[in-house]
Amino acid sequence: MRDATTASVLASVRRLEAVGFRAWPAEQAIYDGSWLIRLTRAHPSKRLNSLNPLDPGDRRDIAGRLKAAGKRFAAAGRPLTIRMTPLAPPELLDHLHGEGFERFDESIVMSADLSQGAGEGLDQLPLRDINRFIDARLAISGEPESLRAGLCSILAAIKPETGLFLLQSADRPSAVALAVLDGELIGLEQVAVAEAERGQGLGKAVVQSALRWGHLHGARMAWLAVGAANAPALALYRKLGFSEVYRYAYFRERNEA
Prior knowledge:
Residues 125-257 form the N-acetyltransferase domain. It holds the Pfam family Rv0428c_C. One of its GO terms (molecular function) is acyltransferase activity, transferring groups other than amino-acyl groups. This is GNAT family N-acetyltransferase. Keywords: Acyltransferase, Transferase. This protein starts with a helix and ends with a strand. It folds into 2 domains: 2-108 and 248-253, Gcn5-related N-acetyltransferase (GNAT) (Aminopeptidase); 112-246, Gcn5-related N-acetyltransferase (GNAT) (Aminopeptidase). It is built from 7 helices and 10 strands. With 257 residues, it is of the alpha+beta class. The mean pLDDT is 93. Helix 4 (130-141) crosses helix 5 (148-157).
């Protein structure tokens, strides 16, 4: 029974990892066996610049492959960053601990059954203007203008259908969400609420609008990834019917300086 349960969980992880890669595509995707190297010069996102082991049984030459991956990351001007999900081999985790790598930034991948009410919300049409969405996202998050070109290229590279959602108050952007419709799955990316307007239900409203749009277009399940330390966002998503599927964390070489 335990083996069957483990197989079922890993199947869910594989499915969500695959749609996650399509929802937030990297400029380069390079495979070394089942280890996926994702690199993106135009944007510093860890998800877009990470080594992703995708098979617990792929434990061949861990030290040599990490060294080769490190050279690829260095050539791209990025630090070697390993994203560890339940698909990573335990031997790799042991190796990282033994070599002094440090763990940081844990995230939780959550899902919700849209037939249970998570698809309720305002019937809002998504934006068609990528630049307007990016303007709002940068203004709300306070991220630097230098990320504009990278965000534009990422959004343009998403192959599944997307919905760009924006809420405004007093002609200022208040909340944004990117929805990616991939078959019967809808993923949420880039969810953000303006700091001065948090606690007013805007996050719930923009997420529900995105989920309703996805549900009306055939989605049956929603998914998202949220920082494990982001208590307000976790509380919101749980209220909307999301529950944890799995976690992942990043590892990097320890800086001794």
